[in-house]
Amino acid sequence: MKPLPAEAYEALADALAKIHWHKNAFQRYIQFALREAPELLIGLPFQETKRIVAHELVDRLAEKERKYRDFTLSLMIEVSAINDFPDVLAVKDRPELLAAAKAAVARLARIAAPLAADNAEAERIQAEAERLRASAKARQLAAQDLATLKQEFLDLHAEQNPQKRGKSFEKLLTRLFDSYDLQPRMDYTVASDQIDGAISFDSDDYIIEAKWTASPVERSMADIFATKVARAGKNGLGLFVSTNGFSSGFKETYARSTPFITMDGVDLFAVLDGRFRLDDLLRAKKRHANETGSCFLPVGDLT
Length: 303
Hints:
By secondary structure, the protein is α/β, with parallel strands linked by helices. It has eleven helices and five strands; from the N terminus they run αααααααβββαβαβαα.
């Protein structure tokens, strides 16, 4: 920021010295005005004239402008907004004092107003810069988390134990869903149905079926899942995730009317690779299901 001009400091000192006539009132005002910076009161020579005290205070503010800039500007704005001078009006035989006080405050207002505007704009710019830095950091952390999940997904292809691989896959999905604030709940039982998980997305609740099989999932598994979705409630939806895709019978049976949407390994990798956001993908798949009745929309059709 540019240094505050000397004229502004001079105008502040002049106004402080003139808005009160009696020294007691002047001292009380200064003490109250400095309540957020009481260290500035130490050693102020209140036994001297108001002008000397005001200039001493302003000299201290100017000397440590980096520390007191915002405070100084707020004090300038506060003083320049004064339009009532009861202590000066009390001096009946000196009408010129009121004119001098008003003139000093008006001068300060003319000088301080653009400085305050510049300061507010600078603060806005700084706040926006902070917001952008925080956003960039959040994106960086999110990218790092995705990279970790992507590597774990690739590593799972080498796992020979299907049960262990399946459990690890469910945990990976939980962390992925959690990174998008989908409130995942994994692996629970409802009315004798074993549910791999559930998420909340766009005001809808989805139950999850997650499969890592050697071949594409067959229609029989789709029928079982459709029954689970139906029992979940009239507003229930489903998301079937299969790393090795879905058989032609699966896709043909649920090509015109479906209670669930699907994700295969290609879809999942596109998300983990950062080429498609999970929420955008789910939203597109749901829209496709609503418009066509089909459970299947590969990510390749979207890109």
